[in-house]
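Table S2 (text version). Query chain:
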Amino acid sequence: EFFQGMIGTLTAGGQLKLFFLNRAEHYMRENRTRLHKFLESIALLAESYIVVAVAMPLFLIVMLVIMFWVSGSGAQMSEGMLYGIVLGFIPLIHVAYAFLVWSSSKEQEM
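Corresponding structure-token output:
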């Protein structure tokens, strides 16, 4: 498209400088629009990350610890379950969000 326009401008006897300026403005607008969409999607991911990976595990751990203390000896909640959440579930959430950000940035490059 770029070379076709350049050939058309040269064939018609137009000014090549004006053509280059118009194309540069066009590509800058196109890039700005694409980056704006990308930033909106990253902002959505950031908001969901705060809720899912920060607030939810914090509330979950606090609630489970309180349930563990209140329930007494017949508790269905164990320390192993808390360790599983802290050492397994939370890092898994962070890795999943890192993969989401990585994959969305790969889509942006295309």
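Notes on Table S2: The radius of gyration is 27 Å. The chain has a mean pLDDT of 86.
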